Prior knowledge:
Layout: E1 24-30, H1 36-43, E2 49-52, H2 55-62, H3 70-83, E3 106-112, H4 116-129, E4 132-137, H5 141-150, E5 159-160, H6 172-190, H7 192-196, E6 202-205, H8 206-211, H9 213-224, E7 241-242, H10 255-261, H11 266-272, H12 307-310
Parallel strand pairs: 1-3, 1-4, 2-3, 4-6
Antiparallel strand pairs: 5-7
Helix pairs in contact: 3-4, 5-6, 6-10
Amino acid sequence: MRRGNKWALKTPIQMNVVLPQDRAYFLVYKGFRMGSKWFEELMNRVKGVNFKFELHHCFAEEDLEASHNPDNMVNKTLSYLRSSCNCVKAKCFDCVEDNQKYPCIASGFSLVNYGRDSVMYVRQLYGATNFKLVMHVRTNHVKHAVSFMRTTCAGQHNHAYETNYSMFAIDPQRLISRSMMASRTHYRLTHVPDTLGIEPVYYVIYEILQQNPEKEIENVLRAVGVSSYIAWKPQVEFPLVKQGSDLMNETLTNYNEVELAFGERPCLLRMLKAHRFQSFNVKECVMNRSARVPVPPVPPMNNTLTAKECNPY
């Protein structure tokens, strides 16, 4: 047992919440910057479904000390799943307006991969709920890296309520470093089910979600056990949209310089030049197997763009 690991328990957690058996329960295990807030909005447009984005973060914001107590966190999660369709007026337990008008068919939430702590939490929760596991990944690691870096500029988001086609300048070597880090993160994330000992029922791939959002949400719900016809609510008044361009030559002011620097890494180069919504088989990119060239070191604060990079004009 690793010393100091708050989830490595000697005895099972005492479960104090009994869940209704009239709905499907599912957990979406993911990384950062994968369109998961947009995924939440899409999922909550389905009648009778309630889905919470990064529930763990909400619990931590509510009570940071209590969030380090495994008994408390697992039982709070169970409480959320039990009441999520009932619109309880409490922080972290709110639900989509008018959802209580429809029979509850599914409750779920997303969790960011924090390594061993997340794994132990999921194992404990799985023992209490037997939820369905959905993995959420992103296969274009160059665009993933740009997503991390652009949000360090004031007012920039990956999904927002209006488009903003701002352009940026990113040092090519920093972008290569961050893209390779995204490849390694993807590799670790896709091996989480083996560590958990839980077989995922579905893989949400961000680029495929972009191609046909409603079809992908339907696929997820079918996979977690929702067999009835899926009826969509009316479109939300101000839906989240991709804030910037999905094309890198419309995003990077120094695109030609970046393209030249990526020339020795063919897989990353294809990602850089990709059209909208193109997904990739990333095995060849993981751990830099696609090119036998040194991986540049990742300096501290590598995500942060300078003021000049944020406003290159």
